[in-house]
Amino acid sequence: MLRRPAWQVLRQFVRHESDTVGSLVLERSMNRVQLLGRVGQDPIMRQVEGKNPVTIFSLATNEMWRTGDSDVTQGGDISQKTTWHRISVFRPGLRDVTYQYVKRGARLYVEGKIDYGEYTDKNNVRRQATTIIADNVIFLSDGGTKEKV
Question: Cys-Cys with 140: which of 47, 71, 87, 107 at CB 3.0–4.6 Å?
């Protein structure tokens, strides 16, 4: 059940004249991602010297649709597209639990934000990377493993 009507929630993201300071306009914005998929690889934990450790894993999401003339008819082939997402977990408690218990094939719900970055690879070529910075991870299955935690 919602605590506030949707118009009240959305209203806080709209620019108001009272939010202006000189020529600066203060607007609220949102960077939010929700993913439901399966883990593609066991997580790894990395730590760059002088920085906090991070748990990294990949998550696959699938999109399915029926090809053909009409959505009403049962004819046509079913097509599928898999998208892979790089997930990074920085929060200390969540980072450690994710590293310890997430396994390849596990079904997860991940909530977080999109982060775009650049890096230079081993061949000195500049590359761009899109990462989901996870704020919340919900375990939906054990991925069919025999071990129970």
Answer: 107
Residue 89 CA, chain-centre distance (Å), reads: 10
Q: Is the model's pLDDT at 2 over the cut of 90?
A: no
Record the tokens describing residue 21, joined without a space.
Answer: 């300071």
Q: What are phi and psi of 145, to 5 degrees?
A: -75, 155
pTM of the model as a whole? 0.71
Longest dimension (CA), the chain: 62
- Cα 38-41-43 angle, rounded to 5 deg: 105
Mean pLDDT lowest among 4-13, 33-42, 49-58, 65-74: 4-13
Residue 121 CA to residue 51 CA, distance in Å, equals: 20
Give the 3-state secondary structure of 122-136.
CCCCEEEEEEEEEEE
Cβ contacts of residue 20 below 8 Å, gap of 6+? 26
**Token pair of 11 as six digits:** 């209203």
Instruction: Supply the pLDDT for residue 16.
Output: 54
